[in-house]
């Protein structure tokens, strides 16, 4: 019989899979992946990306879920429990605090992007961009990014909704997102792909995304694939620690995480197929980042038949996915406040939501110093978190304790995961960190 201090597991075994997948989709890998695939050789880049997902992101997310399933508390509490059971220093629990803090920074960034996506959906739906030129769409977005009042207007009704979902807790909020939000996003993706098949330039898009241009694939391309794969799935952000506390005790955790990774990859490819053909049809070269999502894509939909309908669906899908991820990213901090500081969940949800709103308000201008500082903190915090997680699970926890949490998995699969976490994962993360430092120094 579980008391009120122990999270109650989800009843459905697939809830964990769908919840992890819904969050991964909303973390925004599609901002860069279609462009990077085309620029770095297509299939070779995608292979490097998938190898990293399979050997780094998925194993580390599985490690987080395992720790959460073992400790069944806050990120800090779960890591403290694992350290105590392993006879290690309680300082390892600080990793849970680091993950919770980085997650809040990313949540603030997602809030900005979600509000921009909501505005684009509204503008396209009302015909505000009908037959607009590229300059018109770009100017419209620049005005949006600078409009302080519009940002506050959207945020003042979105953040109470997010706070309510967080206050409900993962048992209800992530259950709703897993069983209603994810299927709705899947149906939307299918409709968007059908539209792209009807109105997009499939030949050029296929050559761009899926060509086998090995001459374009070099060390820089490989590292771009590694870094993109490393940041997907939401490993290192405490989400797995929180969701693991809700995992049914008889769930095969490794296979559950692998299934979530497959779903996330399917969504990323589906969105690429739904968007890139439209860009080529309207003579737009695919790019990456904010301009790709909020200028190029709105222009394409605004200049194609029925684009107002499907453009609204696309940006509605985008905003929903980001809100789902934002709710999950706030959960680690709420759990720390509730379990470690003894706050009421409702009060913790309000406090965390207010902090995220305030931080987003400060960094709303992506060209302002604060925006760059937050992005740099995320870029630094996530690799450090991933490396620390790999070192703790792979080198500080005794294998029998870890095996006990993965008792549902076949021996060969556990041993493969164990060696990945111990050897491949830390080496890959260190290589990626070194590459980022070298690349940034060269750029500077």
Question: What this model shows, in words?
Answer:
The protein has 444 residues and is mainly alpha-helical. It has helices at 14-26, 33-39, 43-71, 75-86, 94-125, 134-146, 148-168, 173-199, 202-210, 219-231, 239-244, 253-281, 290-302, 307-339, 345-362, 369-396, 399-405, 411-443. It is built from 18 helices and no strands. Helix 1 (14-26) runs parallel beside helix 12, helix 3 (43-71) runs parallel beside helix 10 (219-231) and helix 16 packs antiparallel against helix 18 (411-443). The radius of gyration is 21 Å and the shape is globular. It starts with 13 loop residues before the first helix and ends with a helix.
Rg on CA atoms, Å: 21 Å
Strand content: under 5%
Number of helices: 18
CATH topology: Amino acid/polyamine transporter I
- Overall strand count: 0
Uncertain regions spanning at least 5 consecutive residues: none
Helix content: over 70%
Main CATH class: Mainly Alpha
What sort of overall outline do the alpha carbons produce when their principal axes are compared?
A: globular
In short:
Helices cover 77% and strands 0% of the residues.
Task: Reconstruct the topology from this structure.
Layout: H1 14-26, H2 33-39, H3 43-71, H4 75-86, H5 94-125, H6 134-146, H7 148-168, H8 173-199, H9 202-210, H10 219-231, H11 239-244, H12 253-281, H13 290-302, H14 307-339, H15 345-362, H16 369-396, H17 399-405, H18 411-443
């Amino acid at each position: 019989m579980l008391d009120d201090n122990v999270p109650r597991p989800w009843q459905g075994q697939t809830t964990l899979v769908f919840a992890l997948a819904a969050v991964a989709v909303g973390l925004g890998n599609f901002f860069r992946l279609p462009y990077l695939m085309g620029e770095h050789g297509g299939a070779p880049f995608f292979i490097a990306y998938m190898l990293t997902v399979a050997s780094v992101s998925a194993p580390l997310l599985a490690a987080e879920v395992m720790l959460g399933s073992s400790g069944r508390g806050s990120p800090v509490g779960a890591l403290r429990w694992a350290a105590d059971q392993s006879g290690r220093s309680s300082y390892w629990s600080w990793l849970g605090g680091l993950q919770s803090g980085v997650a809040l920074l990313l949540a603030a960034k997602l809030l900005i992007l979600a509000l921009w996506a909501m505005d684009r959906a509204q503008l396209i739906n009302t015909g505000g961009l009908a037959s607009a030129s590229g300059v018109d769409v770009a100017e419209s977005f620049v005005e949006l990014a600078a409009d302080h009042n519009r940002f506050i207007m959207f945020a003042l009704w979105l953040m109470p909704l997010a706070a309510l979902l967080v206050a409900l807790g993962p048992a209800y909020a992530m259950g709703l997102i897993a069983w209603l939000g994810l299927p709705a996003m899947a149906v939307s993706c299918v409709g968007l792909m059908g539209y792209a098949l009807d109105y997009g330039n499939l030949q050029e898009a296929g050559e761009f995304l899926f060509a086998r241009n090995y001459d374009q694939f070099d060390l820089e391309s490989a590292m771009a694939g590694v870094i993109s794969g490393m940041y997907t799935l939401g490993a290192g952000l405490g989400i797995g620690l929180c969701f693991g506390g809700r995992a049914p005790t008889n769930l095969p955790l490794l296979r559950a995480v692998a299934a979530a990774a497959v779903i996330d990859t399917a969504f990323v490819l589906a969105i690429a197929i739904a968007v890139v053909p439209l860009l080529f049809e309207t003579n737009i070269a695919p790019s990456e980042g904010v301009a790709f999502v909020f200028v190029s894509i709105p222009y394409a939909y605004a200049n194609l038949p029925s684009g107002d309908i499907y453009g609204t669906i696309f940006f509605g899908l985008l905003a929903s996915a980001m809100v789902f991820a934002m709710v999950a990213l706030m959960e680690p901090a709420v759990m720390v406040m509730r379990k470690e500081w003894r706050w009421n969940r409702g009060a913790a949800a309000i406090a965390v939501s207010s902090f995220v709103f305030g931080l987003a308000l400060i960094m709303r201008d992506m060209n302002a110093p604060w925006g760059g500082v937050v992005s740099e903190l995320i870029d630094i915090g996530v690799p450090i978190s991933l490396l620390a997680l790999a070192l703790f699970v792979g080198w500080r926890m005794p294998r029998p304790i870890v095996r006990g949490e993965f008792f549902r998995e076949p021996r060969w699969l556990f041993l493969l995961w164990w060696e990945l976490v111990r050897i491949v994962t830390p080496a890959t993360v260190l290589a990626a960190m070194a590459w980022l430092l070298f690349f940034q120094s060269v750029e500077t």
